[in-house]
Design goal:
This protein is mostly beta strands. The chain has one domain. The protein contains no helices and 8 strands. It has a 6-stranded antiparallel beta sheet with strand order 1-4-5-6-2-3, with no helix packed on it. Strands 7-8 form a two-stranded antiparallel sheet. Strand 2 and strand 3 form a beta hairpin. The two termini are 24 Å apart. The C terminus is likely disordered.
Length: 83
């Protein structure tokens, strides 16, 4: 399923960690200047971040996978709230 990651979103590249899993790398920080299309990867979330593979535009960032902080959900309403 395709997801639109909005302009202005802060995202991170990956680094290798325990057991050769990928984790968000705080040294590879990007703020999107345009919205991008991506698909969620079935990688394990790390510290509230979810991995997405960039679909369009392919050459926008020097990386192919970005980590994005998952929005918090309001327990009473169930709507996503970006903090």
């Amino acid at each position: 399923m395709t997801t639109l990651i909005s302009k202005g979103t802060t995202c991170y590249g990956s680094k290798m960690g325990h057991y050769n899993f990928h984790y968000p790398d705080p040294n590879q920080k990007y703020e999107l200047l345009i919205s991008i299309e991506a698909t969620r990867l079935s990688w394990r979330s790390a510290d509230g971040y979810t991995a997405f593979k960039i679909l369009k535009p392919l050459d926008y960032l020097p990386i192919k996978v970005v980590w994005v902080k998952a929005p918090r959900r309001c327990s009473s309403v169930g709507r996503a709230v970006v903090l």
